[in-house]
Amino acid sequence: MTYLAVFEGKSGQAVDRDVLVGALRSDWPDAEVTVSSDATPGREVRDVAWTYGETEGRIEGRSHIDGTCLYLEGPLRLAARFAVWYRGLVPSVEELIFCDDTYSFTVSVATGASPESVERAVEASF
């Protein structure tokens, strides 16, 4: 399933590409991270891409070029972990929403949220 961790950027803020790449490499050292070039087709929604796997499964992530959205394809448990991690990179003035690609649910990810609380909120929305 495809999940999104997205914020509106109402204050004109975004997560800088270099900040995202540095945090991925630091906090998820086993992730395979690729950064697109200016000429890469589809760069708008694949500016930074990564894969990460563990016993819980495998997730593929990518960022939107505007720095306000992650696309996360994989199991809910890993997607919730990445959304909570991303919350730490998102400017505190922004509300971060976790949803699926059809917006069948939306969960606000608060600062200090746990992956388990996000996962429970998603499950409770069905």
A few lines on this structure:
With 126 residues, the chain is α+β, with helices and mostly antiparallel strands. It is 26% helix and 29% strand.
Tell me about this structure.
This protein has 126 residues and is of the alpha+beta class. Helices cover 26% and strands 29% of the residues. It has three helices and seven strands, in the order βαββββαββα. A hairpin with a 2-residue loop joins strand 3 (48-54) and strand 4. Helix 2 (76-87) packs across helix 3. 30% of the residues are buried. The model has no long low-confidence stretch (mean pLDDT 93).
Chain-averaged pLDDT: 93
Shape verdict: globular
Estimated structural class: alpha+beta
User: Taking strands numbered 1, 2, ... along the chain, how are they ordered across the largest sheet?
Assistant: 2-3-4-5-1-6-7
- Helical amount: 25-40%
Oligomer: single chain
Specify Rg, calculated over alpha carbons. 14 Å
Distinct helical segment count: 3
Biggest sheet statistics: 7 strands, antiparallel
Count of individual beta strands: 7
Tags for this entry?
126 residues; alpha+beta; seven-stranded antiparallel beta sheet; 7 strands
